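Risk register update: the risk of archive-format incompatibility is retired. Evidence:
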Amino acid sequence: MSTFLYKLGKTAYARPWTFIGAWVLVLAVVLTMLGVNGMSTSSDLKLEGTEAQKVLDKLEQELPEASGGQASVVFTAPGGERLDTPERIAAMFEAIGEVYEQEYVINTAELAAAAGAMGQQGGTAAMEGGQMQQGGGAAAQGQAGDASAGQAPAASGAAGQGQAGGEQPQAGGAQGQMPANMPPYGPLMADGMPVPGVLIANDGSVALFQFQFTMQLNSLPAGVTDDVIEAISAAEDGTGITALPSDTLKPVEIPIGTNEIYGLVIAVVVLILTLGSLVAAGLPVLVALFGVGIGVGGAYAISSFVTMNSITPVLALMVGLAVGIDYALFIVNRQRRLIFDQGLSAREAAGRAIGTAGSAVFFAGLTVIIALCGLLVIGLSFLSMMALVASVTVLLDVLVALTLLPALLGLVGERICSPKAREKSRAKTAVKRNGIADRWVRSVVKLRWLVIVGVIVVLGVMAIPVGEMKLGIPTGGSANLDTAQRQSYEAISEGFGEGFNGPLLIVAEPREPGGAIGPEALGGLTMELQGIDNVSVASPLGVNEDGSIAIFNVIPETGPTDEATQELVETLRDPDAALAGTYGVTLGVTGFTAINLDMSAKLAEVFPLYIVIIVVLSLIILLLVFRSILVPVKATAGFLLSVLATFGATTAVYQWGWLHDLFGFDTGGPVMSFMPIMVTGILYGLAMDYQVFLVSSMRESYVHGHRGRESVIHGYDQASRVVVAAALIMVSVFAGFIFTHDIMIKQIGFALAIGILLDAFLIRMTLVPAVMSLFGDKAWWLPRWLDRLLPNLDVEGDKLLVKLKAEESTGKTT
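Archived output:
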């Protein structure tokens, strides 16, 4: 491996424009594809194979007319005032009429008129069935506020019409019974008639408008949602009304801002301090930007052909920037060391740096890729896409580090080390090198038992909050106070009840093949649903033509993240429940809360398998690299300590709300469901980067003659500076994402930043040398039979050095 990479590095150094031109061409192709295809990202989180997703898929098959996307708007009045004044009603009515006139919006008023002509049973099925699916679609996108807005009007529509007409609502032709305690809302009335799709709270402070498009939101032509928002905003003109559109009406934004640039600036400063040269410091950043540009740009270029969540390219950017800079830093630092320590020419030093440090980069990148690709076993398409895009970006980072970087070094030539730096290095040769690092590692080795116990205790205490970690999808209830999402959530909660932020969609099907749900069963099921504990409102949305599917809307009394709501979902899904048995039906449940539960359950189910896969594969790689039993096992055990502490800190900050002002959010909430499994994979790969960088240097010292604790100390001295710099760069890049406006990106950025900080400085830079010093030379023990079986990858470059010395002795050059 080292010999091959040595030759590759020298070739790239000697022919820089060939390699640079090839990479520029690749980038040009990506940019051209991006310009032609454009960018298309979505907020969808489709959960294939889960109960909630199966219900949604079933409805799309049976009721295709209801498969369009849904949106909502919350109207609020100034404090102490009402919306139902003639002027404000007229303004809202006019704005809503403008929305219904849009080409891609279903006109509920026309459907209501058609329903009256067809009869109540058919009309209810036709109209309400369409509104049902909208709510489900919104819930599937993980938008709590949107889901509530989507289903609440349909649920209350039946109640509202009953109040308006002074009659009981009809359930599919059977006379239903409304509870005695009527809800604190009703239909918005205009000229004595209810406005279709609109609810207003009894105190007149807030109204909820829900409507449906004829196709999915991410399939709508450009400008459609802008026209809708413009129409809705007209209600605000001179009326005092505030219109809060749902997030589904807003274009999907790439959650990247100026804060990420600050992290990159800090990384550049660290590079300058580490390498002592603007030229040397600029190369890692340039190489990383090249790899990320191709990886992330390529992801956006194909986003029109595949479903890609808006978080996917951001994750690739986060990981790609961090590892790209680190990999290039490791190689450039090795080249400069060879120049300073051995007096080699820049060309020869570049080749040897690629051959030795490049081998470590290759296997470090391979470990990251394996950890990311392990996410494919989960079987969720949005996670798989995230893993694949990030993995390709890391692969590109490795390739540009091994080919483009030596080409750029060839252009720089001997200027990679200034004359002043060379003179300064010679002056330090007789003085103790890496004074701070040397004193630190010798203290760690001397007090190794105290260090080991201390690190375990500190990380153990930090891990305590993990026991109370609550997983879920962040809702409007945990958004910042100044956001429309939070304001909409609170307005709905105050005007209609918190349960409207997490409605449930219930689908009933006959257990007997060919059976049908008649009017009597529909009415009875409605009453039974209404009588279940923690149900605020239950109403029928209708049946399909042959009666094989009946749809109900259930509004819980509690919010979408409350345990009581989760228990309600479990109760409704219980196949042995008396409700299902009495009417001979099976019940399916979907909606935001149901999807949240399904995601958490599925991730919890596959998490152990995921850990086993990435750990086993990575242990094999580390075994090949280090040819040791102890080193891979120790590396993995240390990672488990750091990742538990990482999740503990994340829980304390984002769930308990500790230091929320410092990290730019107002209210704590659940930890994102897929954050632990995603962060575990990324952190494992990155932690093994530092393991490879640091311990490969110790291994190199051992192979080249140092023994016992001296090999640990010498190797630590050689690698500590670059590992510390690399860790600080990663922490800076990830920390830049903590202050973005997207709460999901905030949590991922924080977890990765704190995870790298703990793993790099407490595990790799402290615990590793302490444990290695305990075992001395035995740390490199490997059974003879296994030693014969394993291929010698020569990561340390020992074979390469032997070959080069032999060539020098014979006067040959490579």
